[in-house]
């Protein structure tokens, strides 16, 4: 493997921001499929792939979602062409025979609390890769936690085991946010080398 060029790092990291607004252009279904496929390539324990994404793209869906969004985040949701609600599937154990056919590991997840912790951890790893994938596809994102996950569950996901974790706006970027990036911690603060 070789190091990506500087332009790739700029797009994925240095110039990538959390976006409050986007161009009006819609995101087509094929792009949403590609995003989910790329996130599916993330490393997960026993290849469990517990991330599930609820995409809200219709005006009807956004109007329904509005009830679950804290007031300060509502304008960002209303202005975005798509919303991705990142969930973990509490029933991911059921698909383990498909995604990890080399051994039956379902017994490791017999304890519901342990299974939930594993589902959340691995779904969050996948969602981080999703954000990088979106940037790679030329999309911007605006992740947010200011919402009521139980309300989203009730409104959209009452019939399945998906548990909302956080959500993000998603769209084509037309301009950088007007405010500067907030400070990042230094290497000495975030790392130890043993
Ligand atoms: C899990 C998560 C939750 C966040 N929640 C909110 C939120 O509720 N509202 C908001 O405006 N921004 C929210 N943010 C955005 C962060 O403030 C932003 O990602 C951070 O300041 C870095 O900004 P930058 O990507 O432009 O450098 C959230 C980000 C993450 C990853």
Question: Could you characterize the architecture of this molecule?
Answer:
This is Malonic semialdehyde reductase. Residues 17-172 form the Nitroreductase domain. This protein is of the alpha+beta class. It has one domain: 3-Layer(aba) Sandwich (NADH Oxidase). The chain contains eight helices and four strands. The protein has helices spanning 6-14, 29-40, 59-65, 74-79, 96-99, 112-136, 149-156, 187-190; strands spanning 51-56, 82-89, 139-144, 162-172. A four-stranded antiparallel sheet has the order 1-2-4-3, with helices on both faces. α1 crosses α6 (112-136). The longest helix has 25 residues, at 112-136. It is globular and about 50 Å long. The protein starts with 5 loop residues before the first helix and ends with a helix. Flavin mononucleotide (FMN) binds next to β3.
Quick rundown:
With 194 residues, the protein is α+β, with helices and mostly antiparallel strands. Helices cover 39% and strands 16% of the residues.
Assign an overall shape: globular
Main sheet?
A: 4 strands, antiparallel
Which fold does the CATH topology refer to? NADH Oxidase
Largest beta sheet: strand ordering: 1-2-4-3
One letter per element, helices H and strands E, the order comes to: HHEHHEHHEHEH
Number of separate strands: 4
Share of residues in strands = 15-25%
Rg over alpha carbons: 18 Å
Average pLDDT value?
98
Q: What compounds are bound to the protein?
A: flavin mononucleotide
Helix content range: 25-40%
What is the H level of CATH, i.e. the homologous superfamily? NADH Oxidase
GO molecular function: oxidoreductase activity
Protein name: Malonic semialdehyde reductase
Domain Nitroreductase: 17-172
InterPro entries: Nitroreductase (IPR029479), Nitroreductase-like (IPR000415), Nitroreductase_HadB/RutE (IPR050461)
């Amino acid at each position: 493997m070789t190091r990506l060029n500087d332009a790739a790092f700029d797009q994925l990291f240095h110039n990538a921001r959390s976006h409050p607004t986007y161009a009006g252009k819609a995101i087509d279904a094929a792009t949403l499929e590609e995003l989910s496929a790329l996130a599916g390539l993330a490393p997960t324990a026993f290849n469990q792939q517990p991330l599930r994404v609820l995409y809200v793209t219709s005006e009807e869906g956004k109007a329904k979602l509005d009830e679950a969004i804290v007031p300060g985040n509502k304008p960002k949701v209303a202005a975005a062409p798509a919303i991705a609600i990142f969930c973990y599937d509490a029933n991911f154990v059921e698909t383990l025979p498909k995604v990890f056919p080399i051994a039956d590991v379902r017994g490791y997840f017999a304890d519901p609390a342990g299974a939930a912790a594993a589902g959340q951890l691995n779904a969050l790893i996948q969602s981080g890769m999703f954000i990088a994938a979106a940037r790679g596809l030329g999309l911007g994102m605006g992740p947010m936690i200011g919402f009521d996950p139980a309300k989203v569950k009730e409104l959209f996901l009452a019939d399945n085991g998906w548990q909302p974790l956080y959500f993000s706006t998603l769209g084509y970027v037309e301009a950088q946010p007007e405010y500067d990036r907030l400070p990042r911690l230094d290497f000495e603060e975030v790392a130890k080398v043993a």
